[in-house]
Amino acid sequence: MKKRNVAFGYRYENGKISVNKNEEKVIRKIFDSYLAGMSLIQIASILNDEKIEYMPSVIGWNKARVMRIIDDERYSGNEMYPQIITYETHEKLKCLKESKSTQQDVDRNNIIYNLYAPVMCKKCGEKMTRHYTRHGIKKEIWSCPSKACTRGVVISDQELIKKIAECLSTIIKDPDMIQIKERSNISNNDSKIQQEIEMAHAENRDNVTEMIFQSISDKYDCIDSETYIAMRIKHIFCDTALDETSLPYLLKKTVKKIILGREPSVCIMLLNNQIIESEE
Ligand SMILES: [Zn+2]
Q1: Domain assignment present for 4
Q2: How many angstroms separate the alpha carbon of residue 194 from the centre of ligand 1?
Q3: Which site in 45, 56, 135, 273 is 20 to 30 Å from 32, CA atoms measured?
């Protein structure tokens, strides 16, 4: 995956970060459009229509990329990054975003019945079940079937979903945290090809070509399923902004288990077996 060295809107010059004038215009346009009530998708499609590059020779704007720019506090300036928007504008954006997300609380109530991933006990690893009690204050309890852990974990649906969303948003902010294992056990084969190429005479060029193809095919075979899954979910996190519609989608496509601890604490295990805790 290509990566920018500095945030969109800036350039690195003589050891210092300065404003990239062309990209600065794009940032202002994103902020103005969002404050004017345009949705992330609408903004992304305008940028794509105008063929604005997100990084050199890459256009591909989407909801997640626009959202990341709106969320980025660096644009209101800090010691390293010169200011592009005022602090007040940044605050206005934050308020607007929050008011949009409270409208989503209603939809969130149903997510609890469609978590896709099972909720597991952090202590013993058993699958927990949700109960709802109306004694005194109504509350949700998750209980573990194991005799060793008879006590339930009290956590409201809203709190549980909020914590799951926090874990997912931690990854969306930095999809590079998805670990993709590098495979190095095929390098022997590469050096053999190198020797062969060095010694190659005209008559066995075909042989070398065949070996190169074989090596490429071996490399694909060596991308084991875990690496493949990690790459696939990383791709999903790069391209998804967290909202009421994407939360179930992310749970379904990226999460293997939700791990619930007594405190109560929540973390998620992704399909590549990586455990993610929420940033707090
Ligand atoms: Zn347990």
Answers
A1: no
A2: 55
A3: 56
Residues 162, 203, single domain; the answer is no
Q: How far is the CA of 126 from the centre of ligand 1 (A)?
A: 5
**89 and 39: one domain?**
yes
CA of 257 to the centre of ligand 1 (A): 14
Residue that finishes a domain, picked among 43, 73, 102: 102
In single-letter form, the type of residue at position 102 comes to T
Q: How far is the CA of 259 from the centre of ligand 1 (A)?
A: 11
How far from 187 is each of 178, 183, 206, CA to CA, in Å? 24, 9, 21
d(CA 53, CA 65): 12
Output DSSP code: residue 58: B
**135 and 254 part of one domain:** yes
| pLDDT above 90 (res 99) | no
Distance 167 CA to ligand 1 centre (A): 22
CA distance 171 to 178: 8
Rounded to the nearest whole angstrom, what is the distance from the C-alpha of residue 129 to the centroid of ligand 1?
Answer: 11
One domain, residues 146 and 267: yes
Average pLDDT of the residues in 190-209: 66
pTM attached to this predicted model: 0.55
The domain tally of the chain equals 3
pLDDT digits (tens, 9 = 90+) for 167-177: 999 999 899 99
How many angstroms does the Cα of residue 148 sit away from the middle of ligand 1? Answer: 7
In a domain, 154, yes or no: yes
